[in-house]
Amino acid sequence: MKVTIDDVVLPGDFCEDIIKAGEKSRVILGPGLRKELEKIFITKAGVLRKRAPNTYWVDSYQKRYVPARGENVIGVVIQKAGDSFRVDVGGSCSATLSYLSFEGATKKNRPEVQVGDVIYAKMLVASKDMEPELVCVDSNGKKGRLGVLNDGFVFKCSINLVRKILNPSCPLLNSLKNEWPFELAAGMNGRIWIKANSMRETIAVGNAILGCEYLTSEEIKSMCTNIASILAGHVS
Amino acid sequence: MTTKRPQLPKSVLEMKFMRKTRERIEKELENTQGHDSLYSNIITNEMRHATGNFISESSFIFCEDLLEGRLSYKGMNPEIERLMEQDIKTSDPDGEMQKDVSDEILYKKMEALNKKRKSNDTPNKNPVLKKKKKF
C-alpha cells in the first residue's frame, strides 16, 4: 500500500514521497526502510517519520537489539578471551572488546576489567556477517563517558523507551534532575544503568523511567512531582 | 582509460629480444578488456545506473536528535557533569548571548551618532575637495 509521512506503516508498504525527495538531493534512510529496485519499501511496523531536511525512518516498537555502528551500549563482560573481552550486549551474538581500547591501556598495563563487570561502550564495527566490536575510547584516545560502570543498578527496557527518555523534548530528566542526585547511563541496546545515593532513590529513578513509557509529557511531569513528594515525605 | 602509460613503439617490440615484454603487454591488454565480458552475467544494468542519493543508516542515533546517554545530576559524578557542561557550551556557541546594551539604548545612541555624522559631513566636504585639487 502507498503510504505517506506520519502514517502507520506495515512491512511491504512503499513510499513515493521519499523517491521524489531522492531525485533532488541526498536522502538518509533510517531503520525500517529499504531501497529495492526503484521503490522505497517499509520493513518494520510502526510510524513513518521524517526529520528535516531529508531523514526518514520508521518509529517502531522493538525489544531485540540489532547492533548498529556508532551507538553507545551497556554490556556485561562474560569472558576474558586472550587479548579481548567478550561482552554480552543483547544482540544475536556477543561483542568483542579489545583490552587495548581503554584509555591509557598498553600491552603491559592492562585495564582492570573483571568478568561480570558492566561497561558502557561504543559500537565500532557492526555488520551483518561479523560479530560486533566495542571500544571504550573515542578517536582521540580519551575515555570520555565510556568505561566500566561501578555499583549502581541495571535494568532492561524496550529500545523505544531509551530513545524516548533521551529525546530532548521529553520532560522526564528535566523534572528529575533538580530533585535528588543521581547518575544514569542509557544504552541504545535497551539497558539502563542508574546510580543514586540510597536504594530508595535508585528505585525511584528506575520506576520513573519505566513508568513513563506510555505517558504523555504532561503525565510524565505530574508523575515526577508525585514520586519526588513521596520520596521527600519518607526521607526525614 | 584516461591515463596513458608510455608505450614502446611497435618496431622495437617486434625485435627478437623483446619477445617476453611483448607477451606481457598483450596479456595485460587482454586482462583489461576481458573484465567486461567476464562479469557481464553478474553486473546488471541496474548496477551500472544505480545512483548514490539514498544512504542507508541502521541506527536511530543519526535520525533522531538524541541526548548523550551518560548523564549525572546534582554532583553525583562530577567528571560526567563537567563533560555535560562542555557539550552544552560547544553545541550552541552562538546561541542567545547576553546583551550588555539593550536594543533601545543602542537605537538611541546610533540615532545620535548618525545626527553627528550628518552635521560633520557638511563641513567635511570642502577639505576633501581641496585635497583633490592638489593631485
From TrEMBL, chain A:
Q: Which Pfam families match?
A: KH_6, Rrp40_N, RRP40_S1
Keyword list (alphabetical) reads: Cytoplasm, Exosome, Nucleus, RNA-binding, rRNA processing
Where in this chain does the record put each K Homology domain? 152-198
Q: Which InterPro entries match?
A: Exosome_RNA_bind1/RRP40/RRP4 (IPR026699), KH_dom_type_1 (IPR004088), KH_dom_type_1_sf (IPR036612), NA-bd_OB-fold (IPR012340), RRP40_KH-I (IPR049469), Rrp40_N_euk (IPR041054), Rrp40_S1 (IPR037319)
Q: Which SUPFAM superfamilies match?
A: Eukaryotic type KH-domain (KH-domain type I), Nucleic acid-binding proteins, Ribosomal L27 protein-like
Main location group: cytoplasm
* Domain (Exosome complex exonuclease Rrp40 N-terminal) ranges: 27-64
Q: Name the family.
A: Belongs to the RRP40 family.
Q: What is this protein called?
A: Ribosomal RNA-processing protein 40
Q: What organism, scientifically named, is this protein from? A: Loxostege sticticalis
**Organism lineage string:** Eukaryota, Metazoa, Ecdysozoa, Arthropoda, Hexapoda
From TrEMBL, chain B:
Where does the record place the region Disordered?
A: 112-135
Give the domain of life. Eukaryota
> InterPro entries of this UniProt entry?
MPP6
List the protein's name. Answer: M-phase phosphoprotein 6
